[in-house]
Amino acid sequence: MDSLMEKFHQKLKKEKDKALFVELVHGVLRYKSLIDYYINFVAKKGVKDKRILNILRVATYELLFLEKIPEYATVNEACEITSKISPNLKAFVNAILRNIIRNKNQIRESLEKIKDVDYKSYISIKLSYPRFLIDYFEENYGFEKTLKILEFLNTKPPQSIKINTKKTDVKTLIQELEKNGFEYEINFYNQEVIYLLKGNIKETELYKKGYFYFQDLASSLVVKLNKEDFERAKKVLDLCAAPGGKTFNCAEVIDGFIVACDINEHKLDILRENILRLGFNNIIVAKNDAEIFNPDFTEKFDIVIADLPCTGFGAIRKKPDIKWNKSYQDIENLHELQVRILDNSAGYLKRGGLLFYSTCTLSRRENEETVTEFLEKHKDFSLVSQTTIFPDEFKCDGFFIAKLRKEGGR
């Protein structure tokens, strides 16, 4: 999804067009069930052609959420695109959209009636989440908490940057942001993380000079909350390092070096480019398959960071397509993968070393239960702490961090 969006994003020249493109794609994915409810209310037999359905989805999103775009402009644009794809359906698209405009209040009232009959179905449509995910979150965190999580994950995320303290400091970067006209907020939990509310900072000299890198608050807390451990470490292994946030966090504070691994060569190339841009000289990049035990790493490291593949439910704000492409089976498959990779990680630590296991998901099966299963198999490890970063509380991605110690040594 990200690579596909980037492909089309790069073709747009104007910043406002790029911003609208992201708004429309993410908006439709964020509210797909609600949009489809409006379309199906007036198209009683549904819309069989997927291309026409997606034209209607984009147009309906504009009608419901983008007040600055005149309704007539939305309808005209949708009809013009339809005439290029399937001219005989232009009148159909025109009729559907004009009916939605005329019947907005009636459709809204119809949806509210579902609330009294089947509240979960109402939430599934109104907030646009698959029913299985609502049920799964409720099993994990209770219904009241689930509602807060779902509502927050539907909000639009600001751009989040982490200051590169090897090149600058908070005060200096803020002065540069103000000089360049950026609106910003300093994060309460980590003042080296800044939220940008407007503007494209990637096109600035600040980016080219390596004064910052993109990272969510939640991801930065692995190192931030355990800074003393990383300061003492001489050798750190970041097992699934791309896109590199936690590797860069380490590079800012560690007195030794980091081995940053990934299996994807393209991701490693991007990692290398960022290391050069940021000016770090204590990172070694290596291609490695985390699922296969690497004997060269045996008991070499003081700290292993295992930020592992997961369902990504905590990152739905940034990747709303996650809502629609995950299932219960994915949760189970990923849990098993996580346990396998952690089994390998255990062998890479020196005695007394620390294993930091993290995910960007909200799922006891992938988080706490993965840790429990790992500890049952590895009696020489103990749990130091585990924390769930709830997105509605921290105003960031949902995240999980577990800190485990290998017995012996120091």
Looking at this structure, what is the CATH superfamily of the largest domain? Vaccinia Virus protein VP39
The helix/strand series, from N terminus to C terminus, equals HHHHHHHHHHEHEEHEHHEHEHEEHEHEHE
CATH 2nd-level architecture of the largest domain: 3-Layer(aba) Sandwich
- Quickly count the domains: 3
CATH class of the largest domain reads Alpha Beta
| Radius of gyration computed on alpha carbons | 24 Å
Can you put this structure into words, describing what you see?
The chain has three domains: 31-125, N-utilizing Substance Protein B Homolog, Chain A (Orthogonal Bundle); 159-214, Alpha-Beta Plaits; 221-406, Rossmann fold, CATH 3.40.50. The protein contains 19 helices and eleven strands. The mean pLDDT is 94. The strands form two sheets. The protein has a seven-stranded mixed beta sheet, with helices on both faces. The chain has helices at 2-9, 15-30, 32-42, 50-65, 71-85, 90-102, 104-117, 119-128, 131-141, 143-153, 170-179, 205-208, 217-224, 227-232, 245-253, 265-278, 328-348, 368-377, 391-394; strands at residues 159-163, 183-186, 193-198, 212-214, 235-238, 257-262, 283-287, 301-307, 349-359, 381-389, 399-406.
